[in-house]
Amino acid sequence: MDVLRNLARQKGRSLLTIGGVFVGILALTVLGAMVERINAMLSLTERFFAAQIMVMPKPRGEAMGRGVFTQEHLKKMAELEGVRAVVPRINIMLDLDDGFAFTLGLPPMIQAVDLQSGHNEWQSLKVRHGRMLTEEDEKGTVLGSDLAKRFEAQVGDTISLNGEEFEVVGILEKTLSGPDNMALINIDAGRQLMGAAGSSLATSAAVVWEPDFDPEELARVLQQQVADVLVLSPKAAQEILDQAVLVINLVIWGAAAVALVVGGLAVINTMMMSISERIREIGVKMAIGARPRTIVKEFLLESGTIGLAGGVLGLGIGSFLVRIGNQLTATRGLEIFYVSPRLIVLTLLFSVLLGVLAGIYPAYRAARLDCVEALRRE
Amino acid sequence: MAVEVLLERVSKTYNQGAAEVKALDNITLRFSGGDFKAIMGPSGSGKSTLLNVLGCLDKPTTGIVRIDGVEVQGIPPGALWQIRGTKIGFIFQNHYLIESLTALENVMLPQRYAGVKRSQAQQKASELLEQVGLGRRLHHRPSQLSGGEKARVAVARALVNDPALILADEPTGALDSKTGMVILELLHSLRSPERICLIVTHDRSVADTCDEIISMRDGRIIEA
Questions:
Q1: ipTM value
Q2: Which of A242, A319, B66, B144 is found 20 to 30 A from A120 (Cα to Cα)?
Q3: Nearest Cα residue in chain A from B56
Q4: Residue among A2, A280, A286 whose CB faces B81 most closely
Q5: How many domains does chain B have?
Q6: How much is the pTM?
Q7: Beta A83-93 vs A204-209: how paired, if at all?
Q8: CA distances (Å), B185 to each of B61, B188, B205, B209, in order?
């Protein structure tokens, strides 16, 4: 109560300071939600790459062109020691009528997978409605949650993927990653979409290793033994992801840090002003038995309260803006923010910590005041 | 053991630029329980410095200060709060109440600093405010109180921890003569063999109500 009353003495100034912290925490919430969204996306991607060696045909040189695997490639890969399964895949850009849209992560895609190969990483994803695709679903598809929303599709509906009709047999739980914007179909249906029905066409392959086999070693062997392919081992994929995460985190947290420094300086300024106005009061408190620690605590409580108030406001309004942002973009299958429980807790803790840290110097100055001098102050 | 306050060959020197100013010059004084004394002297005579040294707000440059058996010199400046909070009660000229707190909260403050539970502190503060005639003004802020009422709150605050030494710096200085007399009577009513009360004043009529007048000039006691 005393803390609130002290802050209420200079309402305008306290509100402006809380406003300074609010702006910092708002920036932290919005940018943090973006980081959390990217991290959520990358964590699934990490899992995806950790379970397979990604093999792609070398580009053939034509504009934007990618090579394709021949049956020979796939056969050679499957024959190598340590290979448990080779899963041919075709990734096709989804042709949507609503034009080009910015996406976070992968653009909307159709992924055609050989479900007979005995390995399907889609199996690890949770199906919210319907069921997972099976090899019997020649013209069936399982949609990611964002794509289903974009198509306004439900299980049993028939939708058009790049001009071909497919029945929706399942809709996935939201993963906050690539699969949210994907449609899974059988590889033969994919080949048909590519105009290569009956061929062994594949644009990439996942190589799964035998238990107790070193995937890095297998990746090296694959690169050496199979001509004209690019091999991405789990470790190499992890390094690429780590680098991406580091750069993204540095940029976003850096921006948030600048906003927070501004908020912190506002708190320091306010607390210094508050102390200079209350010097005699501090002297009186010391004269009647307040210990230096009590004075420090009093000012830290005030600065911490400013931090908390700015934090609650920043987090509340930031979460609201993020929600609106997600709603506005959700119809296009794009949600770029994720306010995770971790972000909420950390942001609130951080806002209090910011207030307390910014209050340390002013509080220390207050506690070090000379009692006699302080009492003389008008 | 009876309450006793002792100053032995106490000097206090301040540096003002290159010059050295001796605010207290070799003062020796002894007070014991029941004393009710006035300290008088012109401005700059050292009255306030003496009060600050006695109140452990300031340390002497040389000499010994002993308050109720506790030798002040040995206590580090950061730990003087304890003796200030438990053994000394201050009454300031302009009352110096905390504006953001009510009368009750102002009186509770020394108890809270001494680690007394809120409920106990509240009860004691209420009783004291009743005693000084402010039972119906407990929840008023200083800005809502008259000068005399503020002075009474200040007296109650000084007494709340049952200090051995009450130091009053011009307690009637900011009051009209009638209210001043009421406060003076209040102070007299608090006389106790367990308590020493020292009043710094410019007002001869106030000093005359005390048992003894200590006169100061140029940092020295000229009459006691």
A1: 0.89
A2: A242
A3: A287
A4: A286
A5: 1
A6: 0.72
A7: antiparallel
A8: 36, 5, 13, 9
